[in-house]
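Researcher: We're teaching a course module on how sequence relates to structure. For the next exercise, students receive a sequence and then see the predicted structure as C-alpha cells, so they can try to spot secondary structure elements on their own. Here is the exercise chain.
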Amino acid sequence: MSARRTVVFFPEGAFGPTNNCVGIGQVLKARGARVVFVVEESFAGTLEAQGFEEALMRLKPVPEVEEAPGQFWKDFVRETAPEFRKPTLEQLEGFVLPVWQELVAGARYVDKRLREIFTELRPDVIVEDNVVGFPAVVAAGVPWVRIVSCNPLELKDPTLPPTFSGYPSADPARWHEFRTRYRELHEPLQHKFSDFGVDRGAPPLPEGEFIHESPFLNLYLYPPDADYARSRPLGPAWHRLGSCVRRPDLASDIVSDAGRAVLYLSLGSLGSADVGLMQTLIDTLAATDLQVIVSMGPQHEELELGPNMTGEEFLPQPALLPHVDLVITHGGNNTITESLHFGKPMVVLPLFWDQHDNAQRMHELGFGRRLDTYGHEPEALIEAVESSLADQQLKDRLSDVSQRLQAEPGRVKAADLIEGLAAGNPVSAGRSPRRSARTRAPRAAS
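Model: And here is the predicted structure for the students to work with:
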C-alpha cells in the first residue's frame, strides 16, 4: 500500500471464520497494512501470536471461570447436541432459533464496545465475517466488507433449497414447508433486532435477514465447481472467492506411514465437543488398516485413539491436507473448501447449521459421500471411505478442481479488493482493482 492503511477484521468467535480472515490478513500485512483483529477476550493472544494486533471485546458478561478460545460456543454445542439427531426441520426450533437468539443478544451487548474500538482505531475499512449484523459496523462511517464464509445458500434464491435444510437441489417438495416454519419461528426476533439497529444508526434489516448486504463490497467463499446456479444474480458488489486457504504456520510431519492410505478426521472445534460421536468414529476407523490422523478438539483428554492413529487437540489443517488421501468432516465451510482446494474426496457427517447444506452439495455433485451422522452403521462409513479411495475418476475430477482453485488464490483476490476499498477505489464493477480483465471476479452463478 502506498499509504499505510488500517484494516480491521471482525470475525465470528469461532476458528472457521477467524482462520478465513487470517489468510486474507496475512496478505494485507505483508503488503504493509496495519491489520487489527477485533476478537472475544477468550481469543486474547491467539492473533497476536500470528503477528496481528488485537482489540478485545465481549459478547456477554465476564464468566466466573477463565475461558478457552470460543468456549461459549463449544459449551453451547455440547449442551444442545441432542438436537443434532433430529431432522433439520425440527432443528429449526431446538437449535437454529436458539443460536440466532444468542447471536442477537451478543450484538446488542457488544454495541457500545465496538463503537469505542472503531473510534480508537480509526480504520480505513472494516471487514466482518459474521452471520449476524452489528449496527456499530454499519454506522461507523467507513467502508465495510461483508464476508460470507458459510454455504452460499445463506444468500437466498427461490430456485435453491432453503438455508440450513440440507435438502436436495433437484427436489423442491419440502422447501415451502421449511421456509414457512423458519419464518414463523424467526420473524419476531428479526423484527426486534432490526428495530434495535435502527435505534443505533443502522438502516432497517432486509426482510427475513439478520445482517445487511454491504453497499461497498461483499465476498462469499465457495469453489466455482461447487457453486449454485441462481435465478437472481447477486449484485455487482458481490465477489466470489473460490477458496481462502491461510498460509500454514509450519510444515506437518505427522503423516509418517507411507504405503497406507491416510485419512484425516475432523469434526471442527465445535463438533468435536460431542465426545460420544467422536469416539464412535474413532472406534470404527480403528478396525481398518488405514492410517488415521485425528483432530481431537477441546475434549481430547476424553478420547482414546486406536493403534493406527495419531492426533492432537489442534492440528495445522492447511499443512496436513496436501498429504492425506481422504477427509472425514462435519461439513464446515472452511474444511469443505480447503479439501476441494487440495483435491481431496470427503465423507461428510453434518451436525448443524450450514453443514447439512454442504454435505448435500458435496453428495449431489459427487465430490463426497453424505452419511447419516448418528444413524449410519460402521460398515457404511468404511464402505464410503474405501469406495472413494478406489475411485480414480473422482480423483481426476478433484485434481482438476484443485488446479483451478490454486491458480487463483482467494486470499490474494480478497486482499486486492479490500486494499482497493481502503484506498478509496471503487470495487463494485466486477473486478479486483489490482488485477487485469483476465482475472476479473466471476459471476455469482457458476
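Model: If you want an answer key for the exercise: Confidence is low (pLDDT under 50) at residues 428-446. The two ends are 32 Å apart (CA to CA).
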